[in-house]
Every structure is written in structure tokens, then in C-alpha cells.
Amino acid sequence: MSYKYFFTVVLFLFLCLLFVKYQANGDEKDISLSSVIDLVESTYIIRQLIKENTLESVLEEHDPEQLALLLDNISPASMAFESEVLTTTIPLVAVCYCNNDDAGHALLVQQLENLALKYADEVKFVIVDAIRLFSLAQDADITTTPTILIIKDREIIDRLEGNNSMNSLEQVLNTQEQF
């Protein structure tokens, strides 16, 4: 399978994920479509599609060999990362955090929601739970949380680490010289 075809398939998968509702243990569960994308939720959707053997129904035209290649080599978390992060055409802010404090997590999400509203069509915001998606955190060399990665054109252009990283992020976004 060519890389161009693979990325097209993953992008199409992401677009389909925006409209997918799924059944979880007999109870319908809605994934909220907030302005901040949670990679845990995206990964869950992909896992559900695989579990229900319906992933192929949301992919564009493909043959069984291509689907098998995708499933054998790409984890659901990597599929979510690819579709949410690496296919965007605008700068992206990925915030890696440890979800061990519900109050702190809620505050982080609220801060990101506010920034996402402020920079609506200019910057995309994604949160990554570094514990639940540890392979993604490891690939990004996350050693402290929160860590904020600013990505443009599939490349990390800035990295902010530690407790003051949210304040630093606002300063970087306000200057926007890098974008």
C-alpha cells in the first residue's frame, strides 16, 4: 500500500469518525465534539470499529489485503494520532498530560477550550493522556507533564514543558510569529 493511499484512508477515517455513533455494552455512548480533541476518545472510536468489524465500512475503497496491512501494522492510538494530528493543514497544539487529578484535568480542558475558541480557525487543539496512550507519549519523548507540542506541517516547531507551559503557550500563540 502506498503512503499516499494510506494517509488518504486515514484522513477519510477521521472524517467518518466525526459522524460515527457506536454501541458500547448495549448502551449508546456519544463522543462529544468539543473544540478540543481528546485522542483517548478518538482511539476508543477506532477500537470499537475494529471490535465490531466495521472499520472497513468507513474506509474508502480498499481490498482485504490493504485492510489487513493497516490492522497488522498500525495501532488504534497511532491511527487516531495520524488522523487527528498529522493530517491537519493548520498549526496544531498537542497537550500531553497525566490524568491522575480530575480537577486538574478539568481545568486543563477548560483552558484549552478557551484557547480553542479564541484561535478557532487558526490552531487545532488536541489532548493526549500520557498514561493511557503511553506509546504515543514515548514516541514523542514525553518525560514530564504537561508537555505541549506545537506542530506545523507535520513537524514539532516548539516544545513547552512543566507547570508553566500553559502560560507559555498563551504567550507563543499571542505572538504567532512561528505560524
CATH topology of the largest domain: Glutaredoxin
Average pLDDT works out at 77
* Morphology call: globular
What gap, in angstroms, lies between the N and C termini?
33 Å
Approximate strand percentage: 15-25%
Overall radius of gyration:
17 Å
Q: Can you walk through the features of this model?
A:
- The structure is a single chain.
- This protein is an alpha/beta fold.
- The chain has two domains: 3-85, no CATH class; 89-175, Glutaredoxin, CATH 3.40.30.
- It has eight helices and seven strands, in the order H-E-E-E-H-H-H-H-E-H-E-H-E-E-H.
- The protein has a five-stranded mixed sheet with strand order 3-5-4-6-7, sandwiched between helices. It has a two-stranded antiparallel ribbon with strand order 1-2.
- Helix 6 (102-118) links the parallel strand 4 and strand 5.
- The model is unreliable at 14-33 (pLDDT under 50).
In short:
By secondary structure, this protein is of the alpha/beta class. 49% of the residues lie in helices and 19% in strands.
Output the keywords.
Glutaredoxin, globular, alpha/beta, five-stranded mixed β-sheet, 179 residues
Task: Record the SSE blueprint.
Layout lengths: L2 H15 L4 E3 L2 E3 L6 E3 H13 L3 H4 L5 H10 L2 H11 L5 E6 L4 H17 L5 E6 L4 H6 L7 E6 L2 E7 L3 H11 L4
Parallel strand pairs: 3-5, 4-5
Antiparallel strand pairs: 1-2, 4-6, 6-7
